[in-house]
Amino acid sequence: QVPVVESGGGLVQAGGSLRLSCATSGRTFSTIGWFRQAPGQERDFVAAFRRNGGHKYYTDSVKGRFTISRDGARNSMYLQMDSMKPEDTAVYYCAVGDRIILSQIRSRDAYDYWGQGTQVTVFS
Question: What is the predicted pLDDT for the residue at 74?
């Protein structure tokens, strides 16, 4: 089992920013994704990064506000969240996988390993 560890969650006022980090020790993966789950809701896709080509993908509700990036030297990746809204409140999960085809990149079932999640709360 490859440990995936998220950090950086917390409490932020609407309009503010947070940066989440995801570390995977000892391995690199072709695709890294972020998902989030609000209370009583499904775990939904937020963003993903594909190492091959450096392509980034976002769900529509975060485009222009969230930025996914990667630090290859540290096997870490980040989710910079700006202009945050109360509806961004959720537990955020980092997930990684190999051999994820593009059509499945938004599917949580396509990812192999998951972190424990980090709470993000946005208050107005």
Answer: 67
